[in-house]
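look at this record:
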Amino acid sequence: MTRLFLITVAILAISLQGMSANSVGDKEILSRISKYDDYTREVRRHLHMYPEVGGHETETAKYLKAELGKIGEFEIHDVPGSTGFYAILNTGRAGKTIGLRTDIDGLPIKESTVNGGGHPKPLVSKNVGYSQGCGHDGHMATLMTSIRILYDLRDRLSGKFVFIFEEGEETNTGIRPMVAALKDIHFDVIYGNHLLSSVPSGMIYINEGSVTTGMAMISFQVFGKGGHASRPDLAVNPIFAAANILTSVSIAWNNQRDITKLVTLGVTQFEAGEAWNVIPDSVYIGGTLRFFDWDAGVRSLELVKSVASDVARAHGCSVRFTEKMTAQVPPVVNDPQATALARRVVDRLFPGRVTNDPKYNWYASETFALYNQLAPTLFTFVGVQNPELGTTAGHHTAEFDIDEDALRYAIGTMVKFAVSY
């Protein structure tokens, strides 16, 4: 009888432990999101007004750490060689280890006082020349409120939550130090999200596979021989060589690549000469390639290099590729199992808000892709486009703005996924 009683108690204990996460219902999550709505907006607005660019987010990091201290006790770890850091919430019970990530940097863009729809912005950066032109203020606010909710629920959860505050997403300066710092943590999954101005406000895009592009950088110089503009025959003009390189690359793009694999070619810099009557010694060409397939991106970059070298040689010039001319960031690829779970549980939390329409894939690139070196990853998009408010401008513009009401969907998606996983 005693043995039977002990077995029954053990089974009951295991069952109750397994039910702990399920005991956090959707209504409770929604209630806590509403409870902390003022806090979410306060955090977002403070960070919006005081943006700092990649590698210089010292005050941002201080503010975030101070907010963590107000919430409760966390293990906080600075990342060597970075302003980034991570914080750990350990429930003390066996379970999975989940990473939740935000970027913390702004952009060197002077913010406009009006948004894309011409509406006056309710707040504008006080750090003149800098702005939160990509929504990272909203990402930080999303994570901070999610942390508050998870901390409130910690006695009913298991495992560990690792909150990742990444420096310099825009400049690629913080991701590698962060990955190195996290390499000894055995993650089961790492989650991140991004506010997106091309998605209707409150819609949540969750899809498996590649959801952002990878990025390779174009960066090279074409060298000729400078001289007086009156005697071009005595010089070797690198401008003609560089112009022909761009023409030849565009022709090769249609004839020497696999056209079923999308790769965009964005040439953004053509720098040559300082005087109208002087043929320069060199020309600089810069830009990016974006791609959803890593191998296609690498092959396309090699095609640019090959064409540039051959055409330059035909003009009596030479080419020097800089160290930046590499495939730098892979596409963000969502894990199928994590995606399926997120779609299922978030659709219950926010009925009718979840979509997997691939038209919402983003052609920008994200350092979040490199967390795939540590664990399966999931990256979701939450729409902030609201024509009535004028939040329609593209990312990385002076007019960029967000619909703050959409933050509740970002928080709910993050918390629901973390609790469910």
Q: What stands out?
A: Residues 11-22 have pLDDT under 50 and may be disordered.
